[in-house]
Amino acid sequence: MRNKFAKLICAAALAGCGCLFSGCVSRPVVNGIPNFAEVDAGIYRGGQPNQNGWQFLRSLGVTNVVKLNGEVADTLADGMVVNFIKLPPATIWEMFQKPSSNDVWRAVQAMKPGGTYIHCGHGRDRTDLVVGCYRLWIEHWTESAATSEMGAMGYRWSIPGLTAFWRSVTHIKREDEQTRP
Prior knowledge:
By secondary structure, the chain is of the alpha/beta class. Helices cover 38% and strands 11% of the residues. It has a single domain (25-171), classed as Protein-Tyrosine Phosphatase, Chain A. The protein has six helices and five strands. It has a five-stranded mixed β-sheet with strand order 1-2-5-3-4, covered by helices on one side. Helix 3 (101-109) crosses helix 4 (126-137) and helix 4 (126-137) packs antiparallel against helix 5 (143-152). Residues 4-25 have low confidence and may be disordered.
């Protein structure tokens, strides 16, 4: 019985992988960048840029990169400052881990107006989570408004660790209430 249950759990997990990792871009690729959008004046977000994408970002005046994925190196980001802040899920096992509030806060703090690009592999999930926290903690959006934007950008609520962090985010005080975790 126990062996049958373990096989059932494994089969469900493997079947879920296709749902979790397929159809990764909800918006079109713009100038070599999947899921590209402007967050605020001089702050942009999206997925892993290709060579054309890096050229496009330079044309926008981007000099600061907040990199949330470690799967691909940003070797084409010549002359840009790359702040690497690893947030799960890079692997199937990490998708169950909540990111630390310190790592999310570091990513939010690194989003400076005047030329910042924040990205993960596909420009959703990790990027949506950090941009959502930026909306809450810096711009003082409501949780409802930030959640709606995350959904519109393609956030997948099926990733347990990121979703658990988001659900707990209202308990983490904003910038004006304390100096962060």
